[in-house]
Amino acid sequence: MTKIQxxxxxxxxxxxxxxxxxxTYFAGRVGSKFITTIRDQKKIMGVKCPACNxxxxxxxxxxxxxxxxxxxxxxxVSNTGTVVxxxxxxxxxxxxxxxxxxxxxxxxxxxxxxxxMHILEECTxxxxxxxxxxxxxxxxxxxxxxxxxxxxxxxxxxxxxxEINAARKQWVPADEPDTQEKRRxxxxxxxxxxxxxxxxxxxxxxxxxxPSVPYKPEEFAEEAYKCWKAGAAMVHxxxxxxxxxxxxxxxxxxxxxxxxxxxxxxxxxxxSSAVGMGVTPEQRISQIVAIKPDMASLNTNTMxxxxxxxKTGKIFIDYVxxxxxxxxxxxxxxxxxxxxxxxxxxxxxxxxxxxxxxxKQGIFSDPMNFNFVWGVAGGQAFxxxxxxxxxxxxxxxxxxxxxxxxxxxxxxxxQSCILGGHMRVGLEDNTRMPNGALAKGSYEQVEVxxxxxxxxxxxxxTTAEARLIMGLRKR
Amino acid sequence: MDRTAVIGVGMTKIExxxxxxxxxxxxxxxxxxxxxxxxMTIDDIDNxxxxxxxxxxxxxxxxxxxxxxxGAAHKNVSCVEGDGAYGAFYGMTRSLSGSYKTTLVTxxxxxxxxxxxxxxxxxxxxxxxxxxGMDMITACAMQASSYMHRTKATPEQLAMVSxxxxxxxxxxxxxxxxxxxxxxxxxxxxxxxxxxxxxxCSPISDGCAAVIIAHESVAAKFKQxxxxxxxxxxxxDSFFFGDRDLSxxxxxxxxxxxxxxxxxIKDPKKEIDFVxxxxxxxxxxxxxxEEMGLVDDAMAGKLLEKGEFDMDGRLPVNASGGLLSxxxxxxAGLYSMAAVVRQIRxxxxxxxxxxxxxxxxxxxxxxxxxxxxxxxxxKDK
Lengths: 475, 381
Hints:
A: TIM Barrel, eight-stranded parallel sheet, 22 strands, elongated, B: alpha/beta, Peroxisomal Thiolase, Chain A, domain 1
């Protein structure tokens, strides 16, 4: 320590000191694994809370939201991510790892929900902005610290679905004079945009199966927005009460519908005409007539619609889903008269035939839009040849999309996309991702559908294109 | 619940560098001023709560080192590590405990003796964050940019906070930086960490403050008219920055909501007359006002432009000059509390606001306002 006489004060001096206290910081078992995985495998790991689905970075022992023990719930996140916030450090100081000016950023890695801090380099400071894509650059020599990621640098630009769509020619009906012929000839049109639908909730999926299932109108709106952003042109929704029960209450359904429309005015909203068990036909259709969504589901046959354990065949819920010819006729008429395009739900090829039979009355306007549903306990399981049989039975101008319950989901949408049809995903049908992990929301499944379209070179339909293709009324 | 009141306050002048004063010198001055203000002697004080931080004090177990000058000899003395408002909260609970009737709460700080950025850097997680060089300034710069990104608040609006508060300080003889400056002066001052200019940041300061909190059974026994604590709450948010919405202060909204409820306030926009809040950086004044529900979301900048937060405006904010005009870390919340007490008693002097019946005191702790403390003080019991 040095004494220094203070200038101008003969009775005062100061002592120059330092609080330099050695300390050993245990990184914790969680922190140790995080750092050593970066060091040895160049992989960045987070932890995922099984209760709320949050993927945390940095990893930690306990979920900050719900006090769940998450220390062993490792998931790998991407080495790339997005800048959610940053500052430019314009001063030099002992504790700073770089000379000023340099950028410190909060970076949300793809696959993580919480951003973490790091240095951003190899870029012009003026060009740094919120939302830019960045990737990790690993250190050449390890220090066994967070600086084993040396820094982040700008990543090659990845365009969003919307950016790609804005840059391409928009599809018009004239681009496709003879769809049916092409389809029959086994040469589906890969240049035709594929419509991705997200079924946000059904009547059955609950929060205990996936905590991201929306219940409140504002939750539907947020989920719908995320799905639209990811590439969905349509959402299908069954309104819920705050506690998660299905509802046929007009006010609640309208509030849910309006919340989605307020958040995403362009998005096509498809409501259900099957609003839970034990409701009357009048209750099922009156809400559609009252709200007049762009589309609504129209069910085509009376069938078992149960919950049966797949492995053992044990029956949990035995329920007959009533859809008589009269209901098919009356609901179909009511929808067409009110400008609501029916989405015709076929749980097997018989339902398709029912529709064609009743349709001889001239109820349905072209193009008819069919949805092939797979995997309901009471309906058909997904088989490729059954899919093709149904497709070949369609009327000439009809469109088809498909959805599958549980593990049927991804195979059936992929087949539909290959054959020139459309794709429906969402938590109504399946709570999981292809790797078996819980989906963070329907939007994550939309991302999978987009990647299928990308792999096949099919453009993803904008909402405007989807309206043209399916013959919906204008916004 | 029993009530408590603030019955005495004392502060040193806030200065850049109190060259010839130790912590004990400052403490002696503030405590004696508070005792004089209350019309009490040290024997009337039942117990003492000090607030300090080991690193700002440059010593460990720092709470034990200023006991003599705060008159804590032979008394029950305890310490709060954090802002003075948190010390006042603990002091209040002691006066409510039944064991003590009067509690002296002190806070002291000599920023001039330490390097704040090194201290705040050490508050970050040692495994994941510290090595990256984060400190309070960079943390708050990120928060400022996320707040501006969300609310569209402009750099000019932030600068106007600095202009207003430094201008208010011209009326407060205890303030460190009374200045007549312009928006342009702020925007042309050195950029420290984008988007914060030097004049968007509070200065390094030295100062000490003391308040005396009494149980209702003795509150009227002494010289001063008691200023009643009607409501108070503390709430904390997540530690890691990425876990929070940085553009929001969820914990402040919750703390304010609870404090209003306790004080029986139904419409804080109408019932709070004036505010002293933690403006360590300009954006914080706007953000905290919105998060406390005192103005509509994303509107604070526009209302500031209209002069609503001026000393003679609809809701005077930081009439004392706030922390932008002098920021003795740790003591800060007690300075704010003392300013509100003086306003309600009508003896704030040059910075007295009109109709000061119900005032709000705000203190915070942690990086980027992780935790917030809200007091509602009132002329009436």
